[in-house]
Automatic annotation (TrEMBL):
Natural source organism: Edaphobacter paludis
Subcellular location: Membrane
Protein name: DoxX family protein
Upper taxonomic lineage: Bacteria, Pseudomonadati, Acidobacteriota, Terriglobia, Terriglobales
InterPro entries on file: DoxX (IPR032808), UCP030066 (IPR016944)
Transmembrane segments: 45-66, 75-94, 100-120
Major localization listed first in the record, in broad terms: membrane
Amino acid sequence: MSRKAKNIAYWITTALVAFFIGSGGVAQVARVQGTVDGFVHILGYPLYFVTILGVWKVLGAIAILVPRFPRLKEWAYAGIFFDLTGAAASSASVGVFGAYGFHILAPLIIAGLTVASWALRPQSRTIGVLFPATSDRPV
């Protein structure tokens, strides 16, 4: 993949993740009725947990968008991934699948976008090289 194509793919996946996570976080902080009902009455989480997750989601969306702070980005990507896989697991554990498994598939698809965004990051947005180039020199 060319550098330009990789950069475009990175920004598309990152924008999508930031939008999904950020908008969900805002809905949780604002305690939008449908969001609160899903968390509290269907999944059984306490109301204060909805607010905590909402604040973390908004901060995570901001963290993956802003320049610099590579370690913060690592934590944000991890937190977003854990949140999304936990959402899918929570829905599956209480038997709330939604139409065509939406409540399980949607978070897993966004988790996949999160992994893609993380993997496509430019070097300037990483802590270091994950897989350093190997040389033919003996160690």
